[in-house]
Specification:
Strand order of the largest sheet: 2-3-1-4-5-6
CATH superfamily of the largest domain: P-loop containing nucleotide triphosphate hydrolases
CATH topology of the largest domain: Rossmann fold
CATH architecture of the largest domain: 3-Layer(aba) Sandwich
CATH class of the largest domain: Alpha Beta
Number of domains: 2
Strand content: 15-25%
Oligomer: single chain
Largest sheet: 6 strands, mixed
Order of helices and strands: EHEEHEHEHEHHEEHHEH
């Protein structure tokens, strides 16, 4: 009988390379929000995969970018901090890369410093020809002794099973840290906040999204007269400027209603129950520089 294994795996890469898409694909549940805008993930989200012989705890980290605020600096610290404390690193790059760019080079140097067992994941292979892919593999193979190099398409769920198999080979015997039914260590409150933020990111103009954060003020469940369970959720969307507040609310509240509707639909699927969602918008200038708020995004 195979000995049970467990361990922590950090997924690191530049912004928009598909880390959240990969983590959701591996877990089979939506634990990380996904948009086509950079810097979507702000905190280190843990997601749990249970197989017959192992429990793998993935840590999805913020994308590596040039920070311009305290929040940005915290996101970078979170991403690099996760590399030192895990058993395996998944380094995600894009198949469309023709060289090792500046951002990927910085990540590579951090991996070399940490001397971590690392699997190189080349994502978006559906966008390039085989010859270009082989050239990229050879380029990275010369740089570091990767445990494995796996070309995948996270969006199309292509070859993602190979990632789990390779991780299991590396992990050492260990206990299950989480219950077998759990797939994330995020609280329901955090999941609700991230779901609302995701819908805002998808629906709003580019200048607004990264100036917002969401705070759930109330979350409780009750049973209505028909005996149905309902979650009451009250949340505030904070933005940086008054002009942004108007955009988020929209004409006659149309945009806020749309954000709320899509978030509620996702939350009802997640919670398997009806949701009564109320949202407000408030301005909190310079929140990205406020320690009291930024500390919530630190890795722990």
């Amino acid at each position: 009988m195979n000995e049970f294994k467990s361990g922590f795996v950090s997924i690191i890469g530049r912004t928009n390379v598909g880390k959240s898409t990969l983590i959701n694909s591996l877990v089979g549940e939506k634990v990380a929000i996904m948009t086509n805008k950079p810097q979507t993930t702000r905190t280190a989200i843990r997601a749990i995969v249970n197989t017959k012989n192992a429990q793998i705890i993935f840590i999805d980290t913020p994308g590596i970018h040039k920070p311009k605020t305290k929040l940005g600096n915290t996101m970078i610290e979170t991403a690099f901090g996760s590399v030192t404390d895990v058993d395996v690193v998944l380094f995600l790059i894009e198949a469309t890369s023709q060289e090792i760019g500046k951002g990927d080079r910085i990540i590579l140097e951090k991996i070399k410093e940490a001397k971590k067992k690392t699997i190189l994941i080349i994502n978006k292979i559906d966008l390039v020809k085989r010859e270009k892919l082989l050239e990229l593999i050879e380029l990275y193979r010369k740089e570091y002794n990767f445990e494995a190099i796996i070309p995948i398409s996270a969006l199309k769920n292509d070859k993602t099973n190979s990632v789990i198999e390779e991780i299991e080979k590396i992990l050492k015997p260990g206990p299950a840290y989480y219950d077998i039914d759990e797939y994330t260590d995020q609280t329901l409150r955090q999941l609700a906040e991230e779901t609302i933020r995701e819908k805002a990111l998808k629906l709003l103009d580019d200048e607004v999204p990264h100036g917002l954060y969401v705070e759930v003020e109330k979350m409780s469940n009750r049973t209505n007269k028909l005996g149905e369970e309902i979650y009451d959720i009250e949340a505030t969307i904070y933005c940086l400027r008054k002009s942004h507040k108007g955009i988020i609310i929209g004409k006659n509240g149309s945009m806020l209603k749309k954000i709320g509707m899509y978030a509620r639909q996702d939350l009802e699927k997640m919670l398997q129950t009806k949701v009564n969602l109320k949202t407000w918008v408030k301005v909190n200038e310079d929140w990205q520089e406020k320690d009291s708020i930024v500390k919530n995004f630190k890795f722990n």
